[in-house]
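ok so i was messing around last nite and threw this chain in just to see what happens. nothing serious, just curious
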Amino acid sequence: MEVHSRLWRVCATGTAVKDAARTKTISCDVLVIGGGAAGIGAAVAAGRAGAQVVLLERYGFLGGLATTAQVGTICGLYLRDTAGAEAMPVGDGFAQEFALRLQRAASAKPLRVTDTGLWVLPYAPPAFARLSDVMVSETKGVTSVLHATVAEAQVEGRRLNQVRALAWNEPLLFHPRAVADCTGEATAAALAGVSLENGGGDQAPALVFVLENVDPGLAQRSLLEVRRELHQAVENKTLPALCARLSLVPGSAANGRLALKLGLLPSDPDRAPWQQVTDAEREARALLEPLHRFLVQNVAACRGARLDSVAPQLGVRSGRRLSGRARLTDDDVLSCQKLPSGIARASWPMERWTKSPQPEMTYFAERDYYEIPLDCLRPAELDNLFVAGRCLSATPGAMSSARVVGTAMATGWAAGTAAAFQASRRSLDDAIAAIRSHQTER
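result:
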């Protein structure tokens, strides 16, 4: 029987035998890897479908980039609409359930951010993390393991049947019936050796930081004087050119606090993903001190501003993604494709952050959406592995639309449901029917 793994190692030494004896073995129906927006959806979906679920998260809290990168707004929940006075949900389902509970818990409400009709839901990262904890904890059959890093995977035939991880430096060995890879970087898929592509250079990352004691009118003026001073400083070479790529996190201004986003340039696609992220993290943080000092000295609205917090992680918009049984294309997005196999509704336009300080936006029809088919979550090589979030199978343009938090929750729900059905040997056609019914329930 063929056993395939990219990183699996077996050593017949005394040390290896001793380590194997110390490793705790855990069996489960569904193993969800990654506790971000997609992973939360996957774990809750699989648990509600009756599966015994283990959710692995590398940080000590849930939420993924929504919390670690302090994204600050949930995009992809609502239809684009320039005329309506209220936000129209793209559909029902887990993402809307989460959004409604977040609004009640944190007194948040949808915000139309531009004259193009885009609606977002602003949120405080601690509230997002807390609600994630609550919703996962209240789901029967779900066990969370925090501070867990997956390092190895074993494939037997067409099934991923073993996953090794370290949880707070203790070795764990999982025997899942099905796996939902919600890591954002297709970590389990890569370790299992399935076909992937590296999109790390497709989009520019950004670093969010918060200033306090800022003139509240600055946000209402759309950072007008900040942009003017930064532009002049870059022209005079007082500041590096990247400092001009500063933008406001919508809905973040309150009580003299303001969340700002410093955009970088796309990474070198020829460098390894870990090199890309390491270089970007160091570059962004090195700019914060001179940028903060410049704002205090040169912008009246920031004269007494203090640097309150910096996101623990860079906001990475693109990375490794699946080459799946189907591929979401630019035409699928722009034509608002609807399919019998559609498992997630997506409403956000293509939003490409490249070398320009502002994103390149490509819109489709107002008050419309497209659907993502289940096969975009499935590798061709394996039958019990599903991916979700920004590592699903898509062209770079289509991924620039499908990567947002609201859509990630929807694809996560689909991956978790499909994994639960696969684990219990129910058909994926039935899983698709269950997912689609969940989208339209009232």
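not much to say yet. The longest helix spans residues 273-298.
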